[in-house]
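Page header: ASSEMBLY MODEL / four components / 406 residues total.
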Amino acid sequence: MARAAARQGMRKSEATRLRILDAAARVFARRGYADTRLSDIAEEAGTFAGSIYYHFESREELVEAVLTLGVTGVFEAVRTRVEALPPGSSHRTRLTAAIETHLAFALTQDPFATANQRLFAQVPADIRQRQIHLHRAYGEYWRKLLEGARRAGEIRRDLDLSVLRLQILGAVNWTVEWYKPGKRSIEQIAAQLATTIFDGIAA
Amino acid sequence: MARAAARQGMRKSEATRLRILDAAARVFARRGYADTRLSDIAEEAGTFAGSIYYHFESREELVEAVLTLGVTGVFEAVRTRVEALPPGSSHRTRLTAAIETHLAFALTQDPFATANQRLFAQVPADIRQRQIHLHRAYGEYWRKLLEGARRAGEIRRDLDLSVLRLQILGAVNWTVEWYKPGKRSIEQIAAQLATTIFDGIAA
DNA sequence: GTCTATAAAGCGATAGAC
DNA sequence: GTCTATCGCTTTATAGAC
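Prediction written out in full:
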């Protein structure tokens, strides 16, 4: 189910706005930024390009709304999952849970997350600029996860944590460019990512 | 020096064509696909948008030429470097060299490589389709590197090599989105990537 | 071969009917 | 609130002068 789709008992206009947002997230996730027209989004939403302007000021506003919901959704999901772990869980368990949740969200559960992942590197610099604080906040969360693990002695002391964080998120984010449902489960992919990140690939 | 810039003793038209190609690679690498106009490229090349059409049929042809030079250039550089290693070098050495070379090329040495990395996920599906065989060939090369390492007993037998390959290339490719010259050297980043991939991050 | 002018097309955005 | 018609800008692409 799409994240914006809780439409019970709301004004008609609000419901339509969310329908357009959902449609935009799906189309952007599928075709990327440059190859998506307002008419594509309208068609996916069962309306017309001109009608979108009753709900959104511009194409940019629509894109930015999708990006914002994407990054905040993943952030919330990851934090919720990590905080729900039994107290005293190892940092390895915490990091593995974060990787799994981020991956599941980005790959199958949320078109906003997928769209955000694909689009963030594609949109013009001014749009990216207005989104950067949200990405930084999420990055900060990961930095704390990694710092916690290091303080607890669960990861090596000789690593640059910024590079490590970008390395992990790079590998995780790149999956949206190649993952096709069916062949491998998300859990399998997440498990291999987690084990190779912690234990390496050397025999 | 840009890869297409060997202009000694060639026809004027050929030289201009290469000047436009270099300019296109730099602008695409900097601004991405959606945010780059032919007029931007023309300006970078010291000419005019209309003049580009004497050398290229269309914007698409220009983009595709940049993408092709990008991926083939990295492929050649990596293969050359790996093959230049002393015979009997360990597979770890070979993989580390491949990571280093790919990274150096993508981050600083070649705007075509940078552009290819950034643009491949951004261009419309039909363009990507026409490039996919080149990417597959490069992916095949990595697959063989990893298979060789596994056969030699240098990496674990329980890993899905496709996921591993995409994980490594994902982490490496993502660097073009965050790397800024100055703070850390390419060698430092490559070294940390290689050591964490092989040995993991666990203390 | 390169420049200037302009045509042609696509698409975001607006206006007004309903 | 939504639809249809259309405007106007942007950008690719072409034509023709030099």
